[in-house]
Please model this.
Amino acid sequence: MDSANPVNALAPATGGPIALERALASFDALWSPRIVTRVNDYDVRVAKVAGEHVWHAHDHTDEFFLVLEGELHIALRRSAADEERTVRLARGEVFTVPRGVEHRPYSPAGAAILMFEPSGTLTVGDRHGEVPDHVDATTGHALDG
Model:
């Protein structure tokens, strides 16, 4: 595996298809996304989630979410002083959080999600509160398995 492009461990060397179900089965960590592939300068990441993430914002990029399993809630606000609203996403639904909008993903019963964002984007954004121990502040991990 090329250390500059540590993805597609489950895909054939020829760049064949990646089974998302198999990718998700290859790890158990919550809030710790795995990079399944790259598209130009963007990562396609999958993650298992349960409970709450941290309030955060990405100042220079939007963040795309697709729910693969379960249900994901995303609390949104323009600033800490702003009123919150929550978007609920069921399996198969997508939502894009616009750049600069503070958000806190959470899933009361657990979910599997796919995210699409520029490579190197930190999971806790450019601005965030204290990162709890159960949240992995990362730019994504290589997919093993």
Notes: The helical segments are 20-25.
